[in-house]
Amino acid sequence: MKVFFKELRISTSRRLELVDITYEVEKAVRESGIKNGMCLVYAPHATAAIIANEHESGLMEDMLTKIREDYPHDGKWKHNLIDDNAAAHLASAFIESARIFPVKDGRLIRGTWQNIFLVELDGPRSVRRIVVEVMGE
User: Fold this and answer.
1) Which one, of 7, 6, 15, lies nearest residue 125 by Cα?
2) Is 50 left (phi over 0), alpha (psi -120 to 50) or beta?
3) pTM of the complete model
4) Structural domain boundaries of the chain?
């Protein structure tokens, strides 16, 4: 089995935002030379997440609204007494920091309307690292 590893570096500009990283992930899959296998997309951060969904502005705003509703920044979270970012930690834990996609014939398999997003939950950040690991034959 072959394993290919690439680290993306993404800047964010808002406290809460979706950054489409589909192109960069697909480029990594092509660079890997792997024809069939799987691709892990992982954000090694406690206050960021990875999702797959449609890149439509209204839906993207809806997702951010839902995150704000479920994990309000001004909630009475105990962690806020230490670091004032409990909502980001909670959202990351429940949304999850990784997604796995199949790779077939050298291409990332995703639904017609599925793009891959970094979910920034505690920005802005000058650098968020995203690990892309492609494994297979």
Assistant:
1) 15
2) beta
3) 0.96
4) 2-136
* Fold of domain 2-136: Jelly Rolls (2.60.120)
Which residues are CB-contacts of 120 (< 8 A; sequence separation ≥ 6)?
Answer: 12, 14, 15, 16, 17, 18, 19, 48, 128
pLDDT at 12: 98
Q: Contact 70/91 with Cβ under 8 angstroms?
A: yes
pLDDT of residue 50: 98
The two three-digit tokens of residue 119, written as one number: 């979910």
Q: For 61-90, write each residue's pLDDT tens digit.
A: 999 999 999 999 999 999 999 999 999 999
